[in-house]
Amino acid sequence: MVGHIKVLAVFHILWGAMWLLAALFAGIVSLFAFGVLAVAGDVGAEGVLIFIFVFLVLVFAFGLLAIPSLVGGIALLKRQRWARVPLIVSGVLAVTNFPHGLVLGAYTLIVLLDEDVRRELDKW
After folding, report:
1. Is the dihedral of CA 58, 61, 62, 63 positive or negative?
2. Half-sphere exposure of 113 (CA within 13 A, CB side)
3. How many folded domains does the chain comprise?
4. pLDDT at 43
5. Whole-angstrom Cα distance, residue 74 to residue 83?
6. Beta-carbon neighbour count of residue 32 at 10 Å?
7. Are 23 and 59 in contact (CB under 8 A)?
8. pLDDT (tens digit per residue) in 6-29
9. Residue 86: is the preceding peptide bond cis (ω within 30°)?
10. DSSP state of 97
11. pLDDT over 70 percentage in the chain
12. How confident is the prediction along the chain (124 residues), in pLDDT tens digits per residue?
């Protein structure tokens, strides 16, 4: 299982980058929708507040999924022992995304809960 450490780190970096791109896309789409409503003159104070709320919720949710994967993946590439914690959290969160997240989450838990991997990371 020790040979899977680098593969798992790269997968989590890609997973985190995907969620950051999703946050960026959600922000761009929200701004576009807000701009269309503003040009049409249909935006009042409640429209602005709804836009801000939806934008912040989406960016926060997607960032919440991205940060543990990116930080943990980079730390795991550097063989940092503490990288296991954010990656296990990210793996558990990823399980809710069927089918790719389920595969990544299961792979994460299988690799990081392996005793050989734990000993390998404790060396560093």
Report:
1. positive
2. 10
3. 1
4. 61
5. 8
6. 10
7. yes
8. 999 999 999 999 999 988 888 787
9. no
10. S
11. 94
12. 888 999 999 999 999 999 999 888 887 877 777 777 777 776 666 777 777 788 778 888 888 889 999 999 999 999 999 999 999 999 999 998 889 999 999 999 999 999 999 999 888 6
Complete DSSP assignment for 42-72: ---HHHHHHHHHHHHHHHHHHHHHHHHHHHH
The position carrying tokens 């934008």 is: 55
* Token reading at 111: 């690799």
Contacts (Cβ under 8 Å, ≥6 apart) of 55: 26, 27, 30, 31
Give residue 36's domain range. 2-123
Q: Are 19 and 90 in contact (CB under 8 A)?
A: no
